[in-house]
Structures are given as structure tokens and as C-alpha cells.
Amino acid sequence: MNHVRTGLDVALGWLRGEAVPPAQRTAADLIRKGRLGLVTNPSAATSDLKAAPDALLAAGARVVSLFGVEHGVRGDIADGVRIGHGKDERTGLPVWSLYGEQYRPTPEMLAGLDAVLYDFQDVGSRFYTFSGSLSHVMAGCAASRVPVIVLDRPNPLGGLAVEGPLLEPVHASLIGMHPIPIRHGATLGELGRLWSGFGAGPDPLVVRCEGLDRRMLWSETGLSWVPPSPNMPTTETALVYPGLCLIEGTNVSEARGTACPFLWFGAPWVRPEELAERLNAEKLPGVRFRPVRFRPSLSKHQGEPCGGCHVHVTDRAAFLPVATGVAVLSALRSEYPQFAWRESRGRYSVDRLAGTSAVRRAIDAGASWKKIMAGWTDGYETYRRRLDKITLYP
Predict the structure, then answer these.
(1) In this predicted structure, which of 4-13, 145-154, 380-389 has the lowest mean pLDDT?
(2) CA 13 – CA 381 distance, rounded (Å)
(3) pLDDT at 1
(4) Region of poorest pLDDT, from 24-28, 79-83, 133-137, 182-186
(5) What backbone phi and psi angles, to 5 degrees, belong to 143?
(6) What angle do helix axes 272-281 and 321-335 make, rounded to 10 degrees?
(7) What span, in angstroms and rounded, lies between the C-alpha atoms of 200 and 102?
(8) Which residue, among 1, 10, 35, has the nearest Cα to 152 in the 3D structure?
(9) Residues 6 or more apart from 98 whose CB is under 8 A from it?
């Protein structure tokens, strides 16, 4: 078992007097001596599971303010719920909201800070909002000339595979701001360096993980999983999320309000045994589907009995989450006349998630998941060249 040290644990080591590599002295000096803001939530935990604000303050860092993005600093806010400014009960520090009236920190929020630390456990999917929030933080800090320091963490899906269409600019939003694939194969620190290349601001300083290899999946890091959001309870959830999250753009339940969000999906009109048989016949790599019945306690079809499937990943190395999600949508679209794409403000929600309208249009036209997947490779070479230039890990 490998034991990766996260950027937070490395930074805490510097505060306790550990030697600093020459390339990281600027970040170390700011962390040791500067007045710091911290953008974070409970997923930013030490190896012994202490919360980042508490651990940094206990080690002597001068953290003077906290910033909350989606779910809030302490992770007690539901998905999509806007939050206001406040005060952290645990530390007494002021909390500035970056998920309410604005996504970017303002000059008022940044006044007197020498640096802003950014620490979250990302899940490896473009539409997870923490990476979009990083772009906004970089832009706001650039305007006030405040450095951003990312305390890096492993990508739980590893750093070798990329999958899914590249985002088209017309579909840019907090759940996808820059032209990268859905499964992006980068850490948050690396994404910050990519965002710099797309004009978000100067390169962030990155406190690198120690002992991290791009080939590692989460189970190989030796780290405990702390859910970064209410519906991301396990690493298996993170593994299927790049594809099964596309269900959010339909009238089918992604099983929010159950024990297995995103691992289950269904609707009151789905015949689970027939759907599982149809999907298993597709012979998608590394996955099997089991019929399941559930009753979600919130969100779509709340309180209604639903039929659907449980996604069982049988081979993590072979599994293609985005292709699997597309195959699921194709089966639902062709088998059930009740299926519908959700719309918001005159636009299809799934287009925003996919980063393109091409996936929805191909599914409506009856294209196979293999044919749809074949169209994603356009732009991969350019993306991989960008990623190769800024990668931090072998």
C-alpha cells in the first residue's frame, strides 16, 4: 500500500519545521508567515482526519478568514443551495460566500491577505463545481494581486484516462468553464495551471502531493475518503459519476435521497429487469447492471416507488464511465416514451453537463454509444499536449 501525503499534510510539515524543496519556498514562506484566507470544505482533511481550518490554526498558520463554495465550509448545505456570508462556529473566523451573490472573491474579501489557500478533494469530473470555483478564485485573486496556493490532492480516478467530449464555449458555466473532457485526468493543482493557460489568472502555487503517481486509483493512495459533497459518499460513487451524472439532465432519478446516489438510477415507469437485460447486452467494459427498486426521499420522484438499475463496476481499469452514462441514456430514450430531457431557461440541462449538444442529438437520432464515443477524440491530442506541459506527477 502506498501512502500519499496530500498538499495539506505537506504544508503542515513545513509549519512544523520540515525541509522545503527549493521550488516550493515561495509557497512555504507565505504559509509560514502570511495572513491567509482558506477556501475549503470537510473533504480537506489531514491524514489523521482533522479538518483543514483546525489543523492549520493548530500548527500556527495565520488563517484569518474562510471562504465557502457549494455545500459551505463545513459541508452542511445541500446541492445547489445558495449560501450567505457568516461566521464559522468552530473557529470564530469570518466566512465569505462564493456561492451566493458572486463566485469570485471581491477586493473587500481579499483585503489584508497575503495569500489564499485552496483545498478540496476533487472527484475527477469536469462538472464538479470545485474546479470551476477554483477558476473564479484565481480570477478574483488576480485582480487584487493576491497569490493562490492550491493544497493538492489525488484525482480518485487516476491521471491516465480521459473521456467524454471537450466543453464547447457556448455551454460554459460553473459546472464546466474551460475546454476539457468530462473525465479530465488531472488534480486540482494541475487544473489550476490549465486555468491559467485559459486566462483565469497567473499560475497558482501548488503544494504538491508526495508519493503520488498518475497511475494510482484512490485505493492505492492509503488515504481515507471523506465525502466532498452529500451525494458523493464513496469512491465508487466518484468512479461512476462522470457518466451517471448526465442523468441529472433528464426526468430520471439519479437516486438522490437514497443510500446509493448515482450508483442507482430509475423512474416509476422503468421496468428494471428488462432495462438491466438491455444494458448488459451492450457489453460495456468493466460494468454490470442489476435490477433495483427504490424510493427516493428527495429530488426527482420524491417518495415514489422507482424501478431501475444498480451500476456494478467489475473492472475499474477497463470501466468507461462516460460511455456507460451515454449507453444508459440511450436505452432509457429508446425504451420509454415517458423519458424526457430537462430544460432550464430554454436550454437543455444535459447539454450543459456534457459540454455539447452533440451527445443529446446523437441519442435522439438513435446512435450507439460506440459511435457517440468515437466522436469525442477530436481535440484530445490538443488537450493531452496542454496537460503534458503542466503535469506535476510522473
Answers:
(1) 380-389
(2) 38
(3) 56
(4) 79-83
(5) -65, -30
(6) 130
(7) 16
(8) 10
(9) 39, 67, 68, 69, 104, 105, 133, 136, 137
CB 109 within 8 A of CB 67: yes
Range list of H helices, 336-379: 349-354, 358-364, 369-374
Q: Which of 153, 163, 159 is nearest to 213 (CA)?
A: 159
- 238: nearest Cα among 144, 351, 316: 316
Residue pLDDT, tens place only, 104-129: 999 999 999 999 999 999 999 999 99
Residue 169: in which H helix or E strand, if any? none
The owner of cell 423519458 is: 339
Q: Is the pLDDT of residue 245 over 90?
A: yes
By the 8 A CB rule, do 250 and 360 touch? no
- Residues across the chain: 394
Dist CA 256 CA 254 (whole Å):
6
pLDDT averaged over every residue in the chain: 96
Question: How many Å apart are CA 48 and CA 46, to the nearest integer?
Answer: 5
Question: What DSSP string describes 118-148?
Answer: EE----SBTTSHHHHHHHHHHHHHHHTT--E
Residue pair 238/123 in contact by the 8 Å Cβ criterion = yes
Cell numbers of 168, please? 464547447
CA distances from 97 to 168, 255, 385, 389 (A): 28, 28, 35, 33
Question: Where do the DSSP E strands lie in the chain?
Answer: 35-40, 62-68, 86-87, 94-97, 115-119, 148-151, 205-207, 264-267, 287-294, 306-313, 343-344, 347-348
Task: Measure the CA–CA gap between 291 and 271, rounded to whole angstroms.
Answer: 9
